[in-house]
Amino acid sequence: MKLTFLGSCSGTEPMPHRHHTSYVIEHDDGVYWFDAGEGCSYTAHLMGIDILAIRALFISHPHLDHVGGLVNLLGTMRKLEGRNDDPARSLSGRTIPVYIPNLRVWEGALSVLAGPKESTHPGFETDAQTYADGIMFDDGTLKVTALHNRHLGDPPEGAPWQSFSFCIECNGKRLVSSGDIKHVSEAVPLIDTGCDLFIMETGHHQVDEVCTYLMENDIPFGKLGFFHHGRAILTDPKGECDKARSIVGDRVFIADDRMEVEI
Fold first, then answer.
1. Residue 249 confidence (pLDDT)
2. Does domain 2-262 sit in CATH 3.40.190.10?
3. How confident is the model at residue 193, as a pLDDT?
4. Alpha helix locations (H) across the chain?
5. How far apart are CA 118 and CA 111, in angstroms?
6. Please, which pLDDT band fits residue 163 given cuts at 50, 70 and 90?
7. Cα separation of 96 and 29, whole Å?
8. How high is the mean pLDDT of the chain?
9. The predicted structure's pLDDT at residue 225
10. Number of Cα atoms under 13 Å in the Cβ half of residue 63
11. Phi, psi dihedral angles at 101 (to 5 degrees)
12. What are the C-alpha distances in Å from 245 to residues 18, 47, 67, 187, 217?
């Protein structure tokens, strides 16, 4: 499977050459979309990613830097479908599953997309649903397991969690994505017996603290990638990468927008 970072920045003010968080997994002619930060569909389309090949959309939590490009993604899908003359690529006859912790945010996105129209139907079929811990998606090609984290704090009694980390499995490979997370230890149960790639956000964490925790606790990971960057990496990505490599070796990278990683 191939991972492409469409946006690598945390929820800062606009930064040169970086957009808010979004990435896609491509495998077996399908596209699986994770988070939808600003400009994600713009970047994907210009990179040649087939947006009409989307098989599912996953939102880790409903903060703006993870859903700010959602309306534009839906609009781009609708626009491309309207220009498509290849029945094999059409969205018609398919239902796109959407996994989002807060349906109010989804309904708001549809309302913005609709504009003054009464109907909020996006022009193709979707199935929006909330999710909880455990296997949330498995189409026989790609499987996604969710685990809540405390980025948004503990919910009131009886209320659902609204922030999650993901384990993505495909073709015998495992990718664990921290999402926004209170502490790196919260993602460790998803790594379990190991993962080929662990991608960890740095909007709320320092690379040396993360690397030290992983090494001191013998967490079994193959490669380590940092994304959803905070101020330290935005100011000095090379220096922060060198700091991380001094702890875990050359198997670490700092994600940039449009970076592609084969897993």
1. 97
2. no
3. 87
4. 40-46, 64-67, 70-83, 103-114, 188-191, 207-216, 231-235, 237-248
5. 9
6. very high
7. 15
8. 97
9. 98
10. 18
11. -65, -20
12. 23, 29, 32, 21, 17
Q: For position 115, what pLDDT does the model report? A: 95
Q: What is the mean pLDDT of residues 151-176?
A: 96
Facing residues of 98 across strands? Answer: 57, 128
Contact partners, residue 16, CB within 8 Å, separation at least 6: none
Strand arrangement of the beta sheet that strand 260-262 belongs to: 125-129, 95-99, 54-58, 30-34, 22-27, 2-7, 260-262
pLDDT tens readout for residues 61-85: 999 999 999 999 999 999 999 999 9
Q: pLDDT by residue (tens digit) across 111-134?
A: 999 999 989 999 999 999 999 999
Q: Which residue has the tokens 């781009």?
A: 76
Domain boundaries, the chain: 2-262
Token look-up 């455990």 returns: 134
- Residue 139: CB atoms within 10 A of its CB come to 13
Helix H, strand E, coil C: the string for 201-230 is ECCCCCHHHHHHHHHHCCCCEEEEEEECEC
128: Cβ–Cβ under 8 A, 6 or more apart, which residues?
Answer: 98, 100, 103, 106
Contact 51, 124 (CB under 8 A): no
pTM (predicted TM-score): 0.97
- Would you state the structure tokens that stand for residue 147, as one six-digit string? 């685990």
Cβ atoms of 30 and 58 within 8 Å: the answer is no
